[in-house]
Every structure is written in C-alpha cells, then in structure tokens.
Amino acid sequence: MINYRKFIRLKNSEHLPILILAIGIIIIIHLCNIHDERTANQYIIQDQEKRSSQLCPLYPSTLLKNVPIDMSSDLTWTDVEKDVKNVQTGGIYTPSDCTSRQQLAIIIPFRYREQQLKTLLRHLHPFLQRQKRAYRIFVVEQYGNGTFNKGLIMNVAFHHASKIVTPLVDCFIFHDVDLIPENDYNVYECEQQGPRHLAPAVDELRYFLMYNDLIGGALALTKEQFFKANGWSNLYWGWGFEDDDMNHRLRHAGYRISRPPNHIGRYKMIRHKKQTPAANRYGTLRKWLRYSYDGIRQLSVLDYSITSVDTRLLYTHILVNFTRSATKTIDHLLEDTPNAK
C-alpha cells in the first residue's frame, strides 16, 4: 500500500510524468491488442454442449501453460522414439481413460527437413496426449528433386486420410513441420461453424498476428469445410502463397476463420534455410477465383502416383511422385481466369 507520505513524494517527484506516460503507453498497447484480437476473431473455445461424462474434457487437468521445448539439433530417431510413449504403429493414439471428443488427422507436408520432423514429433505427440486427443499423424512427402508442390501433396494426404473409416476422421489439421506449439490450452480441435487457424503468434513474427488473412502454420478444418473450399490449390510450384489462396477460398465459401488469442496460440519456429519461393506466386494468387476447378476434386485428372504408404512407429508416411507436368490438365486456368478484384 502507498501511504500518504509516499504519495506526496511520488506526486512531487520529477519522474512522475515519465511514470504516467509509461502507464498510458501500456494501457494503449493493451487496448490495441484487445481490438486486434476481436478484429481477427480470436477467442478461447468454450464447451457449450451437454456431453457424456465419459467424454474427455475440453481442458483436461494434464495441460501445461508453458511447454518446455528442446530444440536440440542432434536428435536421432532412437532418441525420439524413446521419449514418445503410448503410440501405436502409424502414429496412432487413443486416450484410455475417456472417449475422445474428435478423431484427428494431423497432416504434415514434408521435404528435406528430417531434423525438424524429429523435433516436431518429439513435442507434438506428448502435446496431443496431454489434451487427450485421439489422433493419427500423417507425414506426406514429395518424391525426388523436382519443384515442390505443397498444396498438391496436402490434397493427396487428405484424400488418403478421409478414406479411412475405422476410425472415421472428424477433423483434419494441416501442420507445418517447423512449428512447435508452446501452450497446451491451444486446443487442437475443429469447430463446426468455421475453420480455426491455430498458429496466430509465432516467435519469429514477435508473437503477433501480422495480418488478419494469415492462416499458415497450423489450420484445422472439418471434411465439409475442406470440400466447400475445394481443398488446396494444386498450382503453386515452389514454396509459399498456397495458404493465402486457401484463405480466399474459405472466405468466399462463407466462413469466418477463428483463432486462439495470441497468448495461447504461441509457437516456436525451428530455424531453417529459406526455400525457393513459388514462381509467379502473385499472379497465381490474383486468380484465386478458379478454385472451383483447381483443388481436391481435380485430383483424378492430375498425373501423380502414391509410391508408398508406410506405417512407421511415430507416423504414417505417404510418398507421392509427380513431375512439373502433373497439373497440365488445369494449367490453363491461370490464363483463363480473370484476376480477382
């Protein structure tokens, strides 16, 4: 408590104006953060429905607010497999003491980043188990050294995971290999009213949502939401912008994307060498209105093959093979589609 004498000394202090200014700045920053989070539709998921007592709670007592993260660069697969417990072959887990709320398919697009994959799996398995989620992790990799097409391989992985009927997947989470969640209260779950962007606050971006259309990093979609947007574009050759394209698809389909608040949706990014960006990515993005003719429903006309599906201890590995000519049947859309306004 500040007594009268201390108050008088503080009132007469030459530092009082500086103190008042500092407090004012803090209040303004706090109010700006509240405004930004409302504008970006950021909120904590609440369990509004009456559910069975056997169902796992939305926020189990096992959750951690500050997850310890080890970014060691010398991990071996033996180290990771020793640290991860209770996982069935294929990267499958089901809680034993309650019925999981949803069945998750975690889809990780992957290429040339084995060390990052080790680090992610070492943290992601315990993270999901503390949340008492039933899940299966799919790592989808593009074969060979040709130009990377992240959207195409994510569509292939979704198609494969959605055909699994035992158990039937309720929620598909597309997860970058270089992002580690820091807070267990960032619930990995789909919402029926719309897609949920799980990664608004990344350390490399100063834990701040850079713009409201950002949905990269980790995105949760129901099967219905994914099909309504026609999945990912197959026409981004190289790294980047397929997530901005997906944002346009989802919004045009009538969805408002939600997110956790920044203090919950926090992620550490594993440092990595920047890859070759997608060629003509700005021009491709401007023609996003082609989405009804470029996506998951067009997989049947694309020239690709699944080389193998391998059930490894910590994940199911899908290897996809194609060349630059894989999308020749739909490449004309980039010429025929007008720019979006």
Provide keyphrases for this structure.
three-stranded mixed beta sheet, eight-stranded mixed beta sheet, 341 residues, 11 strands, alpha/beta, globular
How would you characterize this protein structure?
This protein has 341 residues and is an alpha/beta fold. The protein is 28% helix and 16% strand. The protein has helices at residues 4-12, 16-39, 77-83, 114-130, 150-162, 223-228, 242-252, 281-286, 333-336; strands at 92-93, 103-110, 134-142, 171-175, 179-181, 196-197, 201-202, 218-221, 266-269, 304-311, 316-322. Strands 1, 2, 3, 4, 6, 8, 10 and 11 form an eight-stranded mixed beta sheet that branches. Helix 3 (77-83) runs parallel beside helix 4. The N and C termini lie far apart (59 Å).
**Which sequence of SSEs, written as H and E, runs from N to C?**
HHHEEHEHEEEEEHHEHEEH
Q: What class would the helix/strand composition place it in? A: alpha/beta
Low-confidence runs (pLDDT<50, min 5 residues)?
none
Q: How large a portion of the residues is in β-strands, by DSSP E?
A: 15-25%
- The percent range for helix content is 25-40%
Which overall shape is indicated by the principal axes computed on the Cα atoms?
A: globular
Radius of gyration over all CA atoms, rounded: 23 Å
Q: Helical region count? A: 9
- Compute the number of strand runs: 11
Mean pLDDT: 90
What is the distance, rounded to the nearest whole angstrom, between the alpha carbons of the first and last residues?
Answer: 59 Å
Please summarize the sheet with the most strands: 8 strands, mixed
